[in-house]
Design goal:
There is one protein chain. This protein is globular. Helix 3 links the parallel strand 2 and strand 3. Among the domains are: 130 residues, 2-Layer Sandwich (Chitobiase, domain 2), CATH 3.30.379.10; 106 residues, Lipocalin; 168 residues, no CATH class. The N terminus is likely disordered. A 9-stranded antiparallel sheet has the order 20-19-18-17-25-24-23-22-21, with no helix packed on it. By secondary structure, it is an alpha/beta fold. 37% of the residues lie in helices and 21% in strands. The relative contact order is 0.09. Helix 2 packs across helix 18, helix 3 runs parallel beside helix 4 and helix 25 runs antiparallel to helix 26. Pfam families: Glyco_hydro_20, Glyco_hydro_20b. InterPro entries: Beta_hexosaminidase_sua/sub (IPR025705), GH (IPR017853), Glyco_hydro_20_cat (IPR015883), Hex-like_dom2 (IPR029018), HEX_bac_N (IPR015882).
């Protein structure tokens, strides 16, 4: 009962699940085709299952999985016989083969289509092979869960024809920076199967550790793992479990950089042979394998041989990213090697090195996969390039005829709204440049956005005005192409204010600029929920011919993009908040990879995501329990933590890499830093605030009850603040929250005052709007690991309720 109450609190006690059922079945990813007809099929206490054509091993696995799932609903699984005439519920799974075949490993491009039909004859699944049947079962589980009630399960009559849009739908988990146990990995694999993801990209080697037992080079785990590594038997166990779920496992063995752990164990393989220590800081480091040393390739081949025996998938990821060439540049042996091989620079040396690695991989029937930096015309076309640099890089890769995957925009270690991930499509959109007419006025501004760590982001803003009205805007960030922005004229408080939004590699990016008569630009950029100040100046001369958008891919080039991967790097993630950082939002990312491109309604997505969040909990994912356990760890035993959940609804971890950069500034950007603060157990996104934004939209469309619900929630928050203050005072582990609570309380007071006045029909004067917005921006501009996300929502309420 307590767990159910906590779930409702985490979900903000919304009614969205009911709305989702009324409008669309709560399935995610949503099927390609779903036809629903009148009627329901009731499941009894027994479900008779008949499976034909499926391999024996996977049939046993499916029976175990179904039995485990159905037990929670009081349903017993029984096997059908050819003479069975039982009146009990029936499930028929037919794989379209004449007889059961040998067990098959999942592989790229396998047919995952299926037909799922529920009518008065029962539940029928038809698929071309085991893998389509597995995807159908994943859909059936969601249908069963969403159809439950207190008495029985009534499944809607549906006919579902489904297949994925992309063949490569992955999740990367970094087991290096913080080690993840076998049980936790298996749990994530269960979640992946539920979300129809089919590639587990396992990051196993990096600067901070080597996580795979090696028989040929045992000092890797003996000296460079801190005792935290997977035995070869454990690797085989996980690979076999993933395979039964229909999931491929692609290991990552970082070459030639990110090699500090290798350097600790075998310094003689490094370009600079010297003693190395275990690296526990986060970042990019100098150790590089020596490409001029034959022993380097002997080492690589030995590891590839071991990996080939452990990981049956065709692809092996070699990393290849963020190579710092200093050691190569300072090595006389490497420089001589480059001269002997006519290599002009470090980029050519890395491509040469990769060619040799590719030859080794080919001996073991493996294909090379790596990050953007491996892309080079000297490499064979069968390599797979994974883009962390974004659509610019991915477009170039696809245009050159190479296969690619998108990960930019799916970095889930960065707290970002699920809607941002949902808009992020692996195939770029066809956006046409609108050139100015001769009589139009073109203005251009340059600006810079300093970051907490690293170089500042530089940009240009180009505006087209016609008859004094702003009609189009374009923004260029760093060396990327220009992007057409969405201009929001409603939010301008002055004639010189420009508000725009776009999606960048950093996240959802919103600019609010004041363009003064003195040719100066000031304002802020919101990267997700994080505030960054911006300054700039007007350009005296500007040629609009400079404005070039990212070219769209033609149909043939688009086929080179095989999908994408969500990536979870674990600098700020441990096993204690692993599920909380992955789920439920990866279901929405999985929908982007699986479902048709036209499925883009974020409001509908969120309605289903609320239901899926609870479904994920029901199948054993721990995102809700990890938050509850984390909050309990911050207070004395037997303390009521309901006030913390109420506070959490108003807050979010700071978006983008704000937390990483702050920890770097504080000297806490390393493996030893504790990750047991309140912010570590905050969900990435407040689903309560999402629901309130939707209710605010309803109010804008004439439904006054939308604003009434917003007021009711703010009143509830208001009533809990005394208890929150008391909790923070009494529990030392919460003491750092004192200023956050004070500011959240001030924001809620402002928001409640505005919303109640608006509900009474009183609009806010523009002069008052400016004053209140300045106050809200000052509160929000505090650079913290926790974002006062409710403040941004109150700004929206202010705009809706102004005169």
């Amino acid at each position: 009962m307590l767990q159910r109450i906590i779930i409702l609190l985490v979900l903000g006690a919304f009614c969205l699940m009911t709305q989702a059922k009324a409008e669309q079945l709560a399935l995610m990813p949503y099927p390609l085709s779903l036809q629903q007809s009148a009627g329901h099929y009731s499941l009894s206490t027994q479900l008779e299952v008949k499976i034909t054509g499926m391999s024996q091993q996977r049939q046993l696995f499916v029976n175990r999985q179904l039995n485990s799932f159905l037990t929670d609903y009081g349903i017993e699984l029984t096997s059908a016989t050819n003479t069975s005439d039982s009146a009990d519920s029936k499930l028929v799974i037919a794989v379209n083969l004449a007889k059961a075949v040998d067990y098959q490993l999942p592989q790229l491009g396998v047919d995952e289509s299926y037909l799922l039909k529920i009518d008065d004859n029962g539940i029928h699944i038809r698929a071309a092979n085991d893998f389509g049947a597995l995807q159908a079962i994943a859909t059936l589980k969601q249908l069963i869960w969403s159809a439950r009630d207190d008495s029985n399960i009534k499944l809607p009559y549906v006919t579902i024809n489904d297949m994925p849009r992309f063949p490569w739908r992955g999740l990367l988990i970094d087991s290096v920076r913080h080690f993840i146990s076998v049980d936790a990995i298996k749990r994530q694999l269960n979640g992946m199967a539920a979300a129809k993801l089919n590639v587990f990209h396992w990051h196993l080697t990096d600067d901070q550790g080597w996580r795979v037992e090696s028989k040929s080079y045992p000092k890797l785990q003996q000296l460079a793992s801190d005792g935290l590594y997977y035995s070869q038997q454990e690797i085989k166990e996980i690979v076999a479990y993933a395979s039964e779920l229909g999931i491929r496992v692609v290991p990552e063995f970082d070459l030639p950089g990110h090699a500090s752990a290798i350097a600790v164990a075998y310094p003689e393989l490094m370009t600079r042979n010297k003693p190395y220590h275990m690296e526990d800081n986060w970042g990019v480091f100098e150790p590089l394998l020596d490409p001029s040393n034959p022993k380097t390739y002997q080492f690589i081949e030995a590891i590839v041989a071991e990996f080939s025996a452990l990981f049956p998938d065709t692809y092996l990821h070699i990393g290849g990213d963020e190579v710092n060439p200093v050691q190569w540049q300072q090595s006389s042996a490497v420089q001589q090697y480059m001269q002997a091989n006519n290599l002009l620079d470090s980029a050519q040396l890395q491509a040469h090195f990769n060619q040799k690695v590719q030859q080794i991989l080919a001996k073991y029937h493996k294909k090379m996969m790596g990050w953007d930096e491996i892309f080079h015309p000297k490499l064979a076309r069968d390599i797979m390039v994974q883009s962390w640099r974004g659509m610019e890089s991915l477009t170039e890769i696809a245009q050159a005829g190479y296969q690619g995957l998108l990960s930019t925009g799916f970095y889930i270690d960065q707290p970002q709204p699920t809607s941002f991930h949902y808009r992020n499509d692996p195939v770029n959109h066809d956006i046409q440049l609108v050139s100015p007419l001769p009589e139009d006025k073109v203005e251009a501004w340059q600006f810079s956005m300093p970051r907490i760590k690293g170089s500042e982001v530089k940009g240009k803003l180009v505006l087209i005005k016609r008859n004094g009205y702003l009609i189009h805007g374009y923004v260029k960030l760093n060396d990327n192409h220009y992007q057409k922005v969405v201009l929001d004229r409603r939010l301008a408080l002055t004639k010189s204010q420009i508000n725009f939004s776009l999606d960048s590699w950093m996240g959802p990016t919103r600019g609010e600029f004041e363009l003064s008569a003195g040719e100066l630009l000031t304002g802020r950029m919101l990267i997700g929920n994080s505030h960054y100040s911006v300054t700039g100046t007007r350009l005296a001369e500007f040629d609009f011919a400079e404005v070039k958008l990212l070219p769209s891919l033609n149909a043939e080039q688009a086929t080179n993009i095989l999908g994408g991967e969500a990536t979870l790097w674990t600098e700020l993630v441990t096993e204690h908040n692993l599920d909380l950082r992955i789920w439920p939002r990866v279901f929405a990312i999985a929908e982007r990879f699986w479902s048709k491109k036209s499925l883009t309604n974020s409001d509908n997505m969120y309605q289903r995501l609320v239901a899926i969040n609870e479904f994920a909990d029901s199948i054993g994912l721990l995102q809700l329990k990890q938050q509850q356990k984390g909050f309990n760890s911050l207070v004395f035993p037997n303390t009521d933590i309901t006030p913390l959940f109420m506070l959490a609804q108003q807050l979010e971890p700071a978006s983008y890499y704000t937390r990483h950069h702050l920890k770097f500034r504080q000297g806490l950007y390393h493996q030893r830093a504790s990750l047991n603060q309140f912010v570590d157990f905050l969900p990435v996104e407040s689903l309560q605030l999402v629901q309130m934004k939707q209710q605010l939209k309803h109010f804008q469309h004439g439904n006054i009850q939308g604003l009434q619900q917003v007021v009711d929630i703010m009143r509830q928050w208001h009533s809990y603040f005394p208890a929150v203050v008391k909790l923070v005072k009494r529990n030392p582990k919460l003491s750092s929250l004192t200023p956050v609570v004070q500011d959240a309380r001030a924001i809620n007071t402002i928001g409640l005052t505005i919303a109640q006045s608006c509900l009474a029909g009183v609009k806010i004067r523009n002069s008052e709007v400016r004053r209140v917005k300045n106050t809200l921006q000052q509160l929000h501009s505090q650079v913290r690991e926790i974002s006062l996300a409710s403040g941004l929502f109150v700004e929206q309420v202010l705009e809706v309720c102004r005169q």
